[in-house]
Amino acid sequence: MRKELFGLADRLAREHRLELDEYRALIDGRAPEITAYLADLAVQARKRIYGNTVYIRGLIEIGNVCKNDCLYCGIRRGNTSCERYRLSHEEILACCREGYTLGFRTFVLQGGEDPFWTDDRLCLLLRAIKQEHPDVAVTLSLGERSRESYARLKEAGADRYLLRHETADATHYAKLHPKELSFDNRMRCLTDLKSLGYQVGCGFMVGSPYQTSSMLARDLQFVEQFAPDMCGIGPFIPQSDTPFRHEPAGSAELTCYLLSILRLIRPNFLLPATTALGTIHPGGREMGILSGANVVMPNLSPASVRAKYALYDNKLSDGSESAQCKDELTQRMRSIGYEVVTDRGDVKPIP
Ligand code: SAM
User: Cα of 39 to ligand 1 centre, how many Å?
Assistant: First the structure.
């Protein structure tokens, strides 16, 4: 069995694909030796394309108003304990200005699905950001919208879109979401985004309630087949005002193991060591980079609203998670042999 797993890892590094039951065997067979082996292969693959560079993105959480009621999420509509906020056009521009001065060349605008953010308002905002900073990339992460809306936002200057698929198993999707949200629409959004020419990111939570290794194998196979430019994965962390408050959190170790496998599936894609990974483990971001991740997304939101974007309990937003503490992040990355760079951080071709 042990020998078989090492063979699978080698084949994955060579061919960037496995069968569904082979992904499941890798997940079920997780043990220290194969973990180290996969991480080593993943780091080599990433270094061949990105050297020792780490890309940074300034994350601006533009608001926590959400019309959805996802069972895992702290900003779900049904959470009456959540103090809602919405940043203004000017406040968002001020975040970008500060971020630009700090050396960020990608801004990620993330928020709940809030009907306030009409296409007109977002297009105005995108044009203003691009006019002030023509050399930055703007990533949106604002949930499900129509194809027409995605097209208008792209035209106004959006470069990338992050929309985690959350799970590639439709039955599992239905257990994590209210019935008005559908797996098919999530997939439709991802397909539309890709066909419109966005750099697209999908992703999923590790250890979400009801998740099995077969489901994770489907997630890996989905990434292989959808071929995104980015993939955001992080451990599920319970939030005390949600129906999943008593569910156990996902682990940093399994998240890192999956990061290594993902890097081998898509050697040149953009793979963040997420805030959730840094929250569940004090060295999570470093562990993520050492497993094959190449992106970190420190928080650039105004300090006054950070605690309100509480997707899960104890979410980090200060120290090296804060854009203002970029030097600390730079030092932490340097201590493991990596360099934070000032760069838009686009996908590089495989040499
Ligand atoms: N509304 C947008 C969307 O649906 O893509 C973006 C915001 S949403 C809050 C961003 C991501 O946070 C989700 O895709 C989900 O994977 C993650 N998230 C939400 N609750 C979480 C939790 N309890 N633990 C870990 N990640 C969580």
Answer: 26
Q: For position 1, what pLDDT does the model report?
A: 62
Indicate which atom in ligand 1 lies nearest the CA of residue 242: 23
> Which of 57, 61, 73, 182 maximizes ligand 1 atoms within 8 Å of its Cβ, making it the mutation to test the pocket?
73
Ligand 1 centroid – CA 8 distance (Å): 31
**Three-class secondary structure of residue 258 per DSSP:** helix
Q: Which residues line ligand 1 at a C-beta cut-off of 6 Å?
A: 72-73, 75, 110, 112-113, 141-143, 163-164, 166, 205, 234, 236-237, 239, 276, 311-312
Give the distance between the most distant pair of CA atoms in the chain: 58
At residue 324, the pLDDT reads: 80
d(CA 348, CA 230): 12
pLDDT in tens, 186-202: 999 999 999 999 999 99
Neighbour count for residue 133 (Cβ, 10 Å): 18
Q: How many angstroms does the Cα of residue 34 sit away from the middle of ligand 1?
A: 30
Atom of ligand 1 nearest to the CA of 112: 1
| Weakly modelled stretches of the chain, pLDDT under 70 | 1
Write out pLDDT tens, residues 41-59.
999 999 999 999 999 999 9
Q: Within a 10 A sphere around the Cβ of 325, how many other Cβ atoms?
A: 17
Alpha helices of the chain — where are they, by DSSP H? 2-15, 20-28, 32-50, 89-102, 119-132, 147-155, 170-176, 183-195, 213-226, 252-265, 275-280, 284-289, 303-306, 326-335
- Tokens 């854009």 — which residue? 323
Atom of ligand 1 nearest to the CA of 205: 16
Q: Which residues contact 179 (CB under 8 A, 6 or more apart)?
A: none
Model-level pTM?
0.97
At residue 321, the pLDDT reads 74
Quick one: CA dihedral 122, 269, 277, 340, positive or negative?
A: negative
Nearest alpha-carbon partner for 188 in 176, 177, 200, 179: 200
Tokens of 160: 């990338």
Centroid of ligand 1 to alpha carbon of 56 (angstroms) = 20
